[in-house]
Amino acid sequence: PREMSYAMDGVYVMFPWHWGGSYSIFSPNFVESTKLSNGVFSAEYGRAVSGLLEVNTVMPDDELHFIFDLNYISSSLFLSTPIGKKAGIVLGAKATYLETLVGTYKTLGGTAADMLEAPPYIRDFFAKGYYQPTDKLTFTVNGFFGSDGMHINMYKDDVESDDEVISFGEMKYDVYQGIVGLGANWMPTDKVQANARFAWSMMYEDLSMKMKDQGEIHYNKDFIEKWGSQFPSVHEGGSYNLDTFSDYYEKVNHQMVQGKIDSEVVLNDFSRIKFGAEEVLAFQTTKENGYMWSEVDFGNAPYPAYMPFKFSIEAEGIKTFNTAAFALWNYGTDESLLSGELGLRAEHAL
Questions:
Q1: 3-state SS record for 140-200
Q2: pLDDT of 168
Q3: For 285-317, how does the pLDDT look when each residue is reduced to its tens digit (9 = 90+)?
């Protein structure tokens, strides 16, 4: 997923996924159409390696629509309504409620989910509106805010293990996403249209983990055969006590501002051209700290050492400025024997 590029209503979206890439933020109720290009994709877009996913969201129409979806882990609401004769709005929300299921399970005496302090969750809100002052001019605004994550807290008394070494700790993982987009579409003639778009998006990740290992470890057979002759303490049945503590956290704040203008001209029933330009400014702040235990091989030492190491990474204000221009020639239709696109794209990254 992180090698692809994503576009919603013509502008880039950073990472439109929940739970690390397994669940899309695009609810079917809000999607008008999708197009997945695997490998080769249109020269209108860049910022990708393995493919492009283009999503166009629904437009409000002249009738009132209301949808309520309910299943065993989530529910969603969808409302589309006109506002007078020249405007309309779409609103929607989606939420999982594994908390209710887990809470009920715990109330009934179940213990397998005791470690779930906050079960995996998704909270999404979507809005889109339009205003059409004339038949040839349309303004749109859309927005999305979503969050997902989970909290696990595993105390020593909660751990049941047949091993002599037990691990316990906690993990908190929360991700917040936001998108706001503005658009304008102008059709001076039936064969010419111009578009302008502006968008701001953000993604904030907050991850923390703590882990403690305690107990007695017996030397295994392979270790005894390799090192038993050099260390009298290493013998069959020998052991050592393990008592380690690890701590890690990561906070990433990623924001993107972008603008795009393009124009499309219909040459005939089978041919049209499109050209445009875009600017994308992305900036990111990352903070990462850790205190971890790991095997370290010193090279000249006869055996590796198990020891702690501490690291800290802080990157403030990483900025990337992309400028791009493109030109396309599309020929053919869905019904024609031959159809395709010839495109040229130029990019500059600073």
A1: EEEEEEEEEEEEEEECHHHCCCCCCEEEEEEEEEEEEEEEEEEEEEEEEECCEEEEEEEEE
A2: 82
A3: 999 999 998 888 877 777 778 889 899 999 887
| Selection from 165, 151, 294 nearest residue 210 by Cα | 151
Question: Which residues 6+ apart lie within 8 Å of 10 measured at CB?
Answer: 183, 195, 197, 260
At residue 11, what is the residue type? V
- Which secondary structure element, helix H or strand E, spans residue 104, and what is its range? helix 98-107
Residue 284: name the closest of 255, 242, 324, 310 by CA: 255
Q: Please tell me the predicted confidence (pLDDT) of residue 235.
A: 66
pLDDT band (50, 70, 90) for residue 74 = confident
Provide the pLDDT confidence category of residue 50 given band limits of 50, 70 and 90: confident
> How many Å apart are CA 249 and CA 244, to the nearest integer?
17
Which pLDDT belongs to residue 108? 66
| Sheet containing 116-134, strands listed edge to edge, beginning at the edge strand earlier in sequence | 65-70, 74-83, 87-96, 116-134, 137-154, 165-189, 192-218, 239-268, 271-296, 305-331, 340-349
Give the list of residues 6+ apart from residue 147 with CB closer than 8 angstroms, or none: 121, 122, 123, 124, 174, 175, 176, 177
* CA 309 to chain CA mean position, Å: 30
- Averaged pLDDT score across all residues of the chain: 89
3-state secondary structure 303-332: CCEEEEEEEEEEEEEEEEEEEEEEEEEEEC
Q: How far apart are CA 318 and CA 282, in angstroms?
A: 8
pLDDT of residue 113: 67
C-alpha span between 245 and 210 (Å, rounded): 8
